[in-house]
Amino acid sequence: xxxxxxxNDVKIGTxxxxxxxxxxxxxxxxxxxxxxxxxxxxxGMTPSTVGMLTGSPGSGKSTMMRQLADSITGQGHIAxxxxxxxxxxxxxxxxxxxxxxxxxQIGQETFVGKVLxxxxxxxxxxxKKQVFxxxxxxxxxxxxxxxxxxxxxxxxxxxxxxxxxxxxTYGIVLFxxxxxxxxxxxxxNVIRHxxxxxxxxxxxxxxxxxxxKRLLFEVSKNRFGxxxxxxVVNLGKKGLSAIDYEDIPHTxxxxxxxxxxxxxxxxxxxSGVQAKVTADQVAEHAEKVRTxxx
Length: 294
Hints:
Elements: H1 34-39, E1 50-55, H2 61-74, E2 78-83, H3 88-98, E3 105-107, H4 112-125, E4 131-136, H5 154-169, E5 172-176, H6 189-194, E6 197-203, E7 215-222, E8 230-236, E9 239-242, E10 260-262, E11 276-278, H7 279-291
Helix pairs in contact: 4-5
């Protein structure tokens, strides 16, 4: 099982100044959701990226994937949403409930090869469009390697196939990873090493925290941008949204260290005093929540 990390064969010892970076790797693709674009480093996702989304049960992972699929289509890209957790009819009803209007391609394939065959077909038909594959979830896929069904290694093999497609064709993959009841990633660590981006949605269970019972969105790994920036988010009818987003700069050039997220003022706080928590403080607390130290 070979995992491709590059589309070019470069001999060891090559001068780094001689390396040519393809234009496609310099052009981020807008996801259509400003706060997600910013969380990933500004401008969206880089072609060839493989991203994993994990989080607490009920935190809105599938909702966010549908939300992204719809907004990605709205940006003129092609979004292929392959569902293995819900029926197509269930996805359709949820899309209606969320009032999503741009649409996206839907599938219910369990064989990863068929998913990628369709993705390649779309790339051939629409060479100027960015193709995204959104998989809900990774553990529902099979590559057919084991005759008697899937094993614990099957998700690793499927992730490798998705990764190879992304690296070979500059496609973009987003999938939901397997988690424990507490929301911690439960798959093989090789999957976490394989992906370029790891996004997490965690619920703050610390009663002493200003963000108690709030959902925290964090990019904990990002090979194409910065990490550790945490957003306080709300799960509503239309999906996930950053709370008080007006406090987050809309200009890509703004330093993320200056970003802040407002939180609600606790009862008893002096009138006119607005409680704020810096992005770094939220990120520090999110790490405690993830590791169980909160």
